Amino acid sequence: MDNRLFRDAMGKFATGVTVILTETDGDPHGMTANAFMSVSLDPKLVVISIKENARMLSKIQESKKFSVNILAAQQEDISMIFAGQLKDQQVSFGRLADMPVIPDALAQVACEVSAEYVEGDHTLFIGRVKDIKLEDGNPLLYFAGRYRNLEDLAEVSN
C-alpha cells in the first residue's frame, strides 16, 4: 500500500486540533498536533506522538514536561502558526502548573513525562496530568486534510 492511501484513510478520522508546548531554558517551544489521546483515568495519563525529525522531540526529552492545548474553533490561526504555515506571528502564552499554555484554548492540560516509547518513525510520550483548565466553546477540527468546525461537518454528512 502506498503512503498516500494510508494518509487519505487516516484523514477520514475527524480529530480535534492541539498545540503541544514545552519549555527549555525559559523559552517556549510548540507544534500543532492531532496525535493525542487520553490513556487512563487512574492515574490520569495522556499520550502524544512526535515524529522523529520534529524539533519538539528533543525539547520534550530535555524538559520532561509538556502541555496539550485543545484549540477552540476560532483558533485556526494559532494552529497555523505552530504548524509553520503562518510566519513571523507573535503568540502570547498563559501559565498552568509552571508550563506555557495557549490562552482561551478549550482545554489546557499540563503534564510530566512518565514514559516514552519509540514506535516506527514517532516517539510516544505518556504524560502524567498535573493540572487542567477548561473553557467553554466549540472545537477546531481537522478532517480530510482541512480545518473544519462542527457546522462544516454537519454539511459534509448531508
From TrEMBL:
GO MF term set: FMN binding; riboflavin reductase (NADPH) activity
Oxidoreductase is among the record's keywords: yes
Pfam families: Flavin_Reduct (PF01613)
Top-level taxon in the UniProt lineage: Bacteria
Keyword field: Oxidoreductase
Example of a GO biological process term: pyrimidine nucleobase catabolic process
Residue ranges annotated for the Flavin reductase like domain, each copy included: 10-149
InterPro entries: Flavin_Rdtase-like_dom (IPR002563), NADH-dep_flavin_reductase (IPR050268), Split_barrel_FMN-bd (IPR012349)
The protein, known as: Flavin reductase
Organism: Mesobacillus campisalis
Organism taxonomic ancestry: Bacteria, Bacillati, Bacillota, Bacilli, Bacillales
